[in-house]
């Protein structure tokens, strides 16, 4: 078998087979002296490819009791940030693509997302509640700089006064402050910035194409200075990998974040073997210990989808993480006031360019 090697700028090292494939293929040395070239990295690294699709719907409806939002919206499928731990990786399997390298190199852009959203918001059956942007992909990943699909969505939400929140690791959210800041002042917008660790070297291999930790702190400061309610996500917590939760919370508080939340690592479907590969490449001496703690939080399994425990885990180790988070939040002052967005301002006619008569 040809040994795997980390790829600079990518979170995973292989196009692991997705769960719907009938055949699984493994690379091996065929004896023609080509293995040395691959090992030395002479072959070109995989480039990012963007394809377009016409979305049939824009909003996803959430019914899971452990998730705080009712509607989700994702302008893209896949995410170039390449976070190895991303729970959304297995969604690429539905496209017939690998949750590994394909998820971070084969990006699908929903070019008509704003138009479809306008139609859905104007529908009589639509009940205005907060829309979460970036539930299974980052709305401010690198391709957004050019395509501006997320900005088109935010422009529409501003036009019809619909509340929304953004979850991102991308500093590109600052570009849209001209839209987000006025909405925030009207109680219609909030932003949550994910900072997994302050360790730049760890972030470079854990989430290789996301903004650097210091840059995300600067984004929090820019948002807070503009009057935007901003929170920090210290997710996911991975035993013996990102161990600086308290330091992240303190830095985020100093930057202006006033709410915080966390989850522990989830490893559904193909994400489990992908994360194990990552451990063997980057933390081989610690891999068994890390997986043992992860399984301890999941009742002896790599993952348990039970709504009661899938976000925070269970058992002694999960309890220790919970206590660390809550004590740090109390000490710093996080979560003393709940961010409430106002859905009463929604004007459905504005979504399709109709002005209200009243």
From TrEMBL:
Molecular-function GO terms, alphabetical: catalytic activity; iron-sulfur cluster binding; metal ion binding
Keywords linked to the UniProt accession: Iron, Iron-sulfur, Metal-binding
CDD domains for the chain: Radical_SAM
Annotated Elp3/MiaA/NifB-like radical SAM core domain residues: 69-293
InterPro entries cross-referenced by the UniProt entry: Elp3/MiaA/NifB-like_rSAM, MJ0683-like, rSAM, rSAM_sf
Annotated signal peptide: none
Gene3D superfamilies in the record: 3.80.30.30
NCBIfam families on file: rSAM_PA0069
PANTHER family found in the cross-reference section: SLR0285 PROTEIN (PTHR43432:SF3)
Protein name: PA0069 family radical SAM protein
Species of provenance: Rhodoferax sediminis
Lineage: Bacteria, Pseudomonadati, Pseudomonadota, Betaproteobacteria, Burkholderiales
